[in-house]
Amino acid sequence: MLLPELTVSEARIAEIMLRSDGDADLPLKAVAKEAETSEAMVVKTAKRLGFSGYKELRGALRAYKSQPHVDLHQEVTPDDTPATIVQKVFRTSIQALEETLAILDMEAFAYAAELLHRARQRDFYGLGGSAQIARDVSHKFLRIGVRTSVFDDTHMMAMSASLLTHGDVVVAFSHSGRTSGLIESVQIAKSNRANVIALTNYESSPLADLSDVVLCSTAQGSFLTSENAAARVAQLNIMDAIFIAVAQKGYESAEANLAKTMSAVSAKRRS
Predict the structure, then answer these.
(1) Given this model, what pLDDT does residue 186 score?
(2) Dihedrals φ, ψ of 219, to 5°?
(3) Rounded to whole angstroms, how far apart are CA atoms 142 and 258?
(4) pTM here?
(5) 3-65 classified as CATH 1.10.10.10
(6) What is the per-residue pLDDT across 115-129, written as a single tens digit (0 to 9) for each?
(7) Helical H runs in 126-270?
(8) Which CATH number fits domain 103-265: 3.40.50.10490, 2.30.30.100, 2.60.120.1680, 3.10.620.30?
(9) Cα–Cα distance, 151 to 140 (Å, whole number)
(10) Contact 193/165 with Cβ under 8 angstroms?
């Protein structure tokens, strides 16, 4: 998640460490040599990543690599059979779910659910693939009578944001957290005292910096599947959990509205 914020030298060191297993025999000198930098820079990078030094980073990496889900992700190759492709895609998504659950801030999660439950107006912003997540979540909320609006156009987002006020909530969906049109609309919403919930893969992104609540996914990906694809699975699960938490806060109303909406569409199914 921090890689986009690192300098070229720091990113090179981080990527070398990620490729390693945190081997206790991997000396600081060897990492510096492979990264074509100084040992001091390796230590500085470890501290930039939140560790006291290289030794603590190496130990944390070794502990991470020993977890059972870590080896699930594998790159797709031109020689893979259909069965192998299915296995790799599913395992990448499973890893994204495991790691997202591990980093999910439960206080932020609870606060997001409370904001959405209390909100007067709930506007969802997303472009491209993120808009599809927003629509899916909006559909779920409608089933229990919680009305939301989805905006997938920057002009419409800006108009929506200009009409929001205190007590309203924006949920901004952006994998990178750097989509300029969406960020501009979030800034307008903030200036009108609306609360902002960000759903993103990068906690240090400009969108996260603007938001009252940040819900983070984390995902790896291959050249073909991309990290966005795995992150979308994780983000959908985060919002599924938010949906359940909001429904729980008004359980009787949610149950009654769910019965109504299910009845309304049941006649459209062929027997």
Answers:
(1) 98
(2) -150, 145
(3) 9
(4) 0.81
(5) yes
(6) 999 999 999 999 999
(7) 129-143, 154-163, 180-191, 206-210, 226-249, 251-266
(8) 3.40.50.10490
(9) 16
(10) yes
